[in-house]
Write a structure and sequence with these properties.
By secondary structure, the chain is an alpha/beta fold. It has 7 helices and 5 strands, in the order H-H-E-H-E-H-E-E-H-E-H-H.
Length: 122
């Protein structure tokens, strides 16, 4: 964990390489190269479910690690990005090397899921 934190200097954060845009996520997802890992609690997902992703609440991640593919880009989603950030560090520490935080609020992300955009994915 120490080396991981040491690698996250100013240049790391300024590069934005820890983030992924909704457009890029959907592009990779369409090609089968990415998954959406929704780390919100089940009570949150009852209000707004993202059926095209995997929902594993933060507190269940250690026990369900084997459900997260290592051969795809893992794009983390939560409403406020705090939970996604915690899971980002955890997964990197566990050897996942292709993890990103979805750079979008829940409102912005919902705006992509419209007929015109969905048609482009087909």
């Amino acid at each position: 964990m120490d080396e991981l934190l040491r690698s996250m200097d100013f240049d790391f954060w300024a590069s934005g390489r820890h983030k992924i845009s909704p457009e890029k996520f959907f592009e990779l997802w369409k090609d089968g190269k990415a998954i959406l890992l929704d780390v919100r609690d089940r009570r949150e997902t009852e209000l707004l479910s993202l059926s095209f992703g995997i929902n594993i609440p933060v507190h269940e991640i250690p026990d369900r690690l084997d459900e997260i593919p290592k051969d795809k880009t893992v794009c983390l989603f939560c409403a406020g990005k705090i939970k996604a950030s915690v899971v980002y560090f955890y997964l990197l520490n566990k050897g996942f090397d292709n993890v990103k935080i979805l750079a979008s609020t829940i409102e912005q992300f919902a705006g992509f899921i419209k007929p015109g955009f969905i048609k482009k994915l087909s």
